Amino acid sequence: MRTRLTDDETAVKEVFDGFFANESPIAIVRAAEPQGHDSELWSKLAATGAPGMALPESVGGGGASLRDLAVVVESWGAHLAPVPLVEHAVATRFLHTCGSDIDSLVAGEQIATLALRDSVAGAARLVPAGAVADVVVARAGNDVVRLNEPGPGTGPRNTGDLPIADRELSSAETVGSADEWTRALDEWRALMSVAYCGLGRQALALGVDYVKDRIQFDVPVGTFQAIQHGLADAATKLEGAHLLAHRAVWALDTDQPDASRLAGMALLFGAETARFCTDRSLQYHGGYGFSEEYDIQLYHRRASAWLLQLGEPSLEYARLADDEIGPIGSSGEAA
Amino acid sequence: MRTRLTDDETAVKEVFDGFFANESPIAIVRAAEPQGHDSELWSKLAATGAPGMALPESVGGGGASLRDLAVVVESWGAHLAPVPLVEHAVATRFLHTCGSDIDSLVAGEQIATLALRDSVAGAARLVPAGAVADVVVARAGNDVVRLNEPGPGTGPRNTGDLPIADRELSSAETVGSADEWTRALDEWRALMSVAYCGLGRQALALGVDYVKDRIQFDVPVGTFQAIQHGLADAATKLEGAHLLAHRAVWALDTDQPDASRLAGMALLFGAETARFCTDRSLQYHGGYGFSEEYDIQLYHRRASAWLLQLGEPSLEYARLADDEIGPIGSSGEAA
Amino acid sequence: MDFSFPPEVEAFRTEVREFLAANLTDEMIAATHDGTIHAPELHAAMAARGWIAGPVPEELGGAGRSALESVVLNEEMQLAAAPVDAMAVSIVVASILLEHGSPHLKDSVVPRLLDGSALGCFGYSEPESGSDVAAAQTKAVRDGDEWVINGAKMWTTLAHISDYVILLTRTDPDVAKHKGLTFFLVPLDTPGIEIQPVPTMAVERSNATFYDDVRLGDEWRVGDVNGGWAVMKTALKYERGIAGGQFPSPTVIDAALDWAQTAERADGSRPIDDPTVREKLMRSLIDVEVCRGFAYHTASLAEEGVMFGVEGSMTKLFASESYKRHCREFQDMMGVDGLITHHNDDAHLGGRIEENLRHSPVTTIYGGTSEISRNLVAEGHLGLPRTR
Amino acid sequence: MDFSFPPEVEAFRTEVREFLAANLTDEMIAATHDGTIHAPELHAAMAARGWIAGPVPEELGGAGRSALESVVLNEEMQLAAAPVDAMAVSIVVASILLEHGSPHLKDSVVPRLLDGSALGCFGYSEPESGSDVAAAQTKAVRDGDEWVINGAKMWTTLAHISDYVILLTRTDPDVAKHKGLTFFLVPLDTPGIEIQPVPTMAVERSNATFYDDVRLGDEWRVGDVNGGWAVMKTALKYERGIAGGQFPSPTVIDAALDWAQTAERADGSRPIDDPTVREKLMRSLIDVEVCRGFAYHTASLAEEGVMFGVEGSMTKLFASESYKRHCREFQDMMGVDGLITHHNDDAHLGGRIEENLRHSPVTTIYGGTSEISRNLVAEGHLGLPRTR
Question: What is the ipTM for the molecules in this complex?
Answer without folding.
Answer: 0.97
